[in-house]
Structures are given as structure tokens and as C-alpha cells.
Fold this sequence. Notes:
CATH class of the domain at 56-184: Mainly Alpha
Shape: globular
Structural class: mainly alpha
Strand content: under 5%
Largest sheet: none
Order of helices and strands: HHHHHHHH
Number of helices: 8
Amino acid sequence: MARAGLTAERLTQAAAELADEVGFENVTVSALARRFGVTDPSLYSHIKNARDLRERLAALALTELADRAAAALAGRAGKDALKAFAGAYRDYAKEHPGRYAAAQIELDPETPAADAARRHSEMTRAILRAYELQEPDQTDAVRLLGSTFHGYVSLERAGGFSHHPRDADASWSRALDALDSVLRNWPV
Length: 188
């Protein structure tokens, strides 16, 4: 649609911006159409449906997050890599709350978004090489790290730490120290 310059990529980028402004749950085809000053049907030559739009947004968010994490990990190993990866994850969630929420949706394993999600798992496994964990412990550790990062970020975003005198950054640092200790001393 030339008059509005619409493309699937432009719609996805606009959806990402909208998600950060109003929340992922409020990103709809109608809201996106209003943003471009067009009718809903005008978007359907570029996206299949609302689910397609959400998956495209998830793929964008996961790719951005993976790129940021990869840059943070460059040349690092062990605890330094763990802290860099975790910091990239937390910073992204703070800067792009709607995109971060999009990155959490369940994805069909055959979609490009699922490929982006696999990059996160691969990077986490790369961090774990320094800890010399074998399967199935490595999978358990990937899940532990993901759960801890997501749980902390989610509680922090929801204001769960705002009424406590201990600084959230100090607690984050201690949590990462604890994760490093657990990974170095993984139970047999």
C-alpha cells in the first residue's frame, strides 16, 4: 500500500514502539491501523492476522535482545559473561517493556521468532561452558538462569522492590553472585 508506505517490517517496528508506549497487551491491528491513519483491512496485505503481528513483534524483540546480549558477551567468560548477559537482559526489559513482554509469548517452533528464541538458549549454553555442566544439568541451569532473570525483571517492573530500603541494583548483583556460586558448585 504505497499511500501509507506500509510494509510488514514497518508495521512490526511501529508495533514495537506502540508496545513500549502502551503495553504489549494493548497492541492490536486496530491500534496499529489508527497509528498509520488507515483502516484495519489495509494492514492485512502485509500481516496475516493479530497472531502474525504478535509473532513478528516477538521475533523483533528476541532478535534485538539476542544482538544486545551477544555484544555484551563478546570476549567474556564465566562470571563476567554471566553478569554481562544478565545485565543486557535486564537493561532491555527496562528500556523496552512492551517488546520484552512480546519476547515472552509462546511461539510455534516453526516460526522465525522461535529461531530468535533459540539464539538465547545457545548463548546461555555458551556461558555455561565455563562451568563445565553436562546434560541434563546444563538444561536445568539454562532454565534456572532464565527463570531468575525473568522473575527478577518482572517483579522489578511491577514495582515489587520499590517499598524496600535495599537498593534493587545491589540485590541484583548479589543474586548474580549467588547464581555464579550455584553454577560453580552444581549439586551432583
